Amino acid sequence: MYSNRECANYFKSMNEYQRCFQELRKKWQSYGKAAGRITLKETSEAERRAIGGILGKTFYDETIRFSFAEFERGLQKTRYAPVDMREVLEAYFGEKLSTNQGQKEEAQKKKSEFLNGIGQYFLEHAGSESTAFLWMNELISQKKSGYQLLIKEYGKDRDQAETLAKNVGTALAKLECAKEAEEECPLAVFAAEISGNPHYFDRGTAAGQLLVHAVCFLRKTEFPQNAHRWRELLLGAGIVPDNVSSIVHAYGLRLRTENGWHPAYDAFCKLGEPYVITMENLRGITGAQAAADRVYAVENEMVFSYLLEHAGNEKLTLLCTSGQLRAVAQELIPLILDTGARIYYSGDIDPDGIGIADRLWQKFGNRIRIWRMSPADYEKSLSGEDIGETGVSKLKHIENPLLRETAGAVEEKRMAAYQENLLDDLLGDITSGGTGTEQTTLNKRLSSDLPRAD
To answer: Domain segments of the chain: what residues?
Structure first.
């Protein structure tokens, strides 16, 4: 009795069966049995004669058609019978055969093991409440937050993809710690601390893109569609893409170096023109001097421009922080406060704006005065934009007394209010030296209390 291997060796020795067996393997992988029809085009006479000999047919056309089942039945009538078609094919190709479905199932199993392994790693090393574990859990269960990117990298190199995911998880944990401490870190430094490569999280790299997906999960926002939104996202998370992305717009503020007043900023002040301060610009700056004992700070660039255009006050010092307080603002504000000046801060009256003002007050105490952010100002500047459940949750831990009252009003109406709707009031305060009736009363009361951080 011949073996299946001997049968396979016979067909391997006959070149005219080569294309036939290639097609037989494809059909077996598709169906897992001798099924399906085979078509061979532009066959040679030797191919037609060899295959016809197995099938018991004579082919005249160059294109021949037959079923897998016919071929197997013909093979069972040869001297190699009985044959196991799968074993014959495996011996012929020198490899184990599996169906396409089987291959897909095996690939899916390995992919699931890969993803679940990373999730288990975060669970064991960071805990079930950690941002890294929650991010990976959503990535796996919802197939979002970077799922397609990570799977693409997994297809290239499983080990590198695993390292990539773990590095991004570590980055999320670091961002959480930095958020609590209100610290910022340059992107290159951040990347080097995580991976040893300062360019690891650069925009366009796989690691950089996956980090952005993870940060979007952390901040509950959409993936940025352009470089500006990308920069805003990172800055909001405490990562400074470069030393010029962290900026403060300023007017009427002199900056001092060890050698005296900085000539460029001195010139801006003399000319009565606004300017921009970056982290790079603050190198070597040792002090600051406002035009008066009150420094006004706003959150919005348009509001800043409007106030400068209409104030007509040469003794005005005005700052614009452009949303979240960047590293440059965190360094500049103490320089101003050290001179004895007070900063009157006004922002949007929505969950994020209230949070910014409250954190600023918590950090610098009563030297920071909340300006035009009272419940009455909220009523005057309503926009009709819903803040959603996420916004409501941000209002739960406000500490400043006035902002806490305002937060209550925002929570009740569930709508945002914006600085742009208070332009006349803000301008009136600057030109008259006021800060709004409710703010003035509260600020006096706060001043009589024990100082928080003076």
So the answer is: 4-97, 105-240, 247-448
